[in-house]
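Memo to structure team: turn this sequence into structure tokens by end of day. - J.P.
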Amino acid sequence: MQEETEKKIAEMLFQQREEEFERASFDREIAFYESIGAGDMEMMRFFAAPLFCEGCGVLSKDALRNLKYHFVVTAAMIARFCIKYGMTPEMAYQMSDMYIMQADECHTEREVREVHRKCLEGYTKKMQIVRNSRIYSKKIVMAITYISEHLHSHISLEEVAEYLEISVSYLSRAFKQETGMNFNEYVNREKVKAAANLLLYSEYSDLEISNLFGFSSQSYFIKVFQKYMEMTPKAYKKRYRVSL
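Reply from structure team:
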């Protein structure tokens, strides 16, 4: 019996190596769940695809059932991380139950993946509200949400004021009063936080990350990064980098 079990394990390991099947790294998985808890849509989308599409073990020989099982695990983990980041347990588990029931009714893998996408976006959007509504006014919540959804482009005070249909001076004053930071400082800090994740969990170079987040030059990116992280991107990567 033991020999038969060991044989099956060996066969599975061989098959995984042959198919170049790699499990998603633990650190990348944690970064994915934390991005949802933080209400960070950009980073959630960055980490989500490889986490769900690749690196998943086989829980059932039936492909559809296997996908559903993985979704149940994912939904449960998301609920726990959202509770950790401030969502009420009642809301977190209600959302989890709702999405799991939707997945259970799916008849194709494509339908399960669509429920999975809605689950990730639904939780992330809800966490944006949870993390902002307790502290900030409605307009500032909208401004912060707009910033988080446009980190990969140049974001100006004028642009956000126009989006919110308020004056530039009012937004500037209210933003400073409620967040304790001026608008540009906040934008740069959020870009640096997102850039730091890419330094650790992607193969992008400093220059590529600088361009990705709309910094005017690589040297300016390094200067801003050092201001908030107290070290250069190169030093940060060297100290905290995780092998992908």
